[in-house]
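Good day; I would like, with your permission, to put a structural problem before you. What I wish to show you is a protein chain and, alongside it, a tokenised description of its three-dimensional fold. Thank you for your consideration; the sequence and its tokens are set out here:
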Amino acid sequence: MSAIQIIPYEIGPCGLMRLKEEKLQGILKKLDALSAPLENAHGIADAWHGFLNYYGADGFKNEIRHMMNRFENERAKGAAMLCVQLRLVCSAGVSLVRVKDKSPVA
């Protein structure tokens, strides 16, 4: 994934709502700071392997478990969390595993 369009929102009791004004500016500022280390392939690989080294397989399972618990208690929010996280993690994980083991990209 080389680029995505960010549409900041929050999940409330009535569904999704786009963030506006002050909340939007605050989130975008935080997103810029979080994204800075991910500006190139080396930074992305470092972040992914850092996550795996810090949390390990059990940590990854705990993240999924947390989202499933949220899904049980707040179905809409849990579903949104799962969709977003799994898309990002799976596409990043697949491409970074290929980079790490030098397998050709299909």
Q: What stands out?
A: The first strand starts at residue 9 and ends at 12. The chain has one domain: 9-101.
